[in-house]
Structure formats: C-alpha cells, structure tokens
Amino acid sequence: MEELMGFITGNKNRQKLLSLLGSRGQLEGVRIAKNMHIAKISADKILEELAEKDLIVEENGFYKLTELGTTVERSVQSI
User: InterPro entries attached here (predicted)?
Assistant: First the structure.
C-alpha cells in the first residue's frame, strides 16, 4: 500500500485524476482531460499507468476506480 501511495503522491496529475474519479464516480477519457485541463494524450498516459496498478478500470469508454483504487484514493485524501 505504501508503494501505491508513493506512486500517487509523487505525481500531482495522478493524484488529481484519482481524486476526480473518487468524487465523480466514472468519466470518459475526454471529460477527464477537460476537467484536469490537460491534453487528452497526457490523460491517456496517466489512465494507462493507473490501470496497470489496478487502481482504475475502463468499461465501455468510461473509467472508474477499482476497490483498491478507492482505498488508495481515500488514504491519499486523509494525508
């Protein structure tokens, strides 16, 4: 868990994206990029990184937190 916390807190955009999904539930990649005010390609890279760590999952073009992602997001928020 500490490794995942470091992975998230070590990058402001990862932290922001995790928080965004934590508060909004699920969003399309384009919406994520717009909400974060970053290029879609940058959002896609972060989404890929988070998916590789099993923190998010994509279903029908929408991204949402996994159970692990929710746990990590809550832990990051409490820091």
Answer: WH-like_DNA-bd_sf, WH_DNA-bd_sf
Positive or negative torsion for Cα 44, 45, 46, 52: positive
The strand order across the sheet containing 56-59 reads 26-28, 62-65, 56-59
Task: Give the span between the Cα atoms of 70 and 79, in whole angstroms.
Answer: 15
pLDDT by residue (tens digit) across 36-71? 999 999 999 999 999 999 999 999 999 999 999 999
Distance, CA of 46 to CA of 8 (rounded, Å): 10
Cα–Cα distance measured from residue 56 to residue 54, given in angstroms and rounded to the nearest whole number: 6
Domains of the chain: 2-77 (1.10.10.10)
pTM score over 0.85: yes
